[in-house]
Fold this protein.
Amino acid sequence: MSKGRWIPLDHLICVRCREKRDAADLDRILWCERCCAEVRRRATLWGRLTGLFAALALVAWIALAVRPRFLAVWATIVVAAYWLGSKVSREIIYGVIRVAHRPGHPEGLDLFNGQG
Ligand SMILES: [Zn+2]
């Protein structure tokens, strides 16, 4: 049985930005609120782009294969596909960024930031 080290829990270090934070400001994987907000903003942007791509693909399929008569119904479906696709993509991308994060590298090594 090994002796555990004493760790002061009033201040911890965010594993992403390496700044000292109050323990209450860190989430369960020790990210501060600012890092979470920054990554969520990035995931929202990529989610919207993914939702837009999915909606455009749906529009192409509808125009070429379905040849609709009731455009309002199909337009509603396309808007719903964009909305739902962007939300689902945002959550998936947010999770992937957090899981694939390398501690101490807030900018250069996160996914979906344009730098690999
Ligand atoms: Zn942080």
About this structure: The chain has a mean pLDDT of 86. The chain has two helices and two strands.
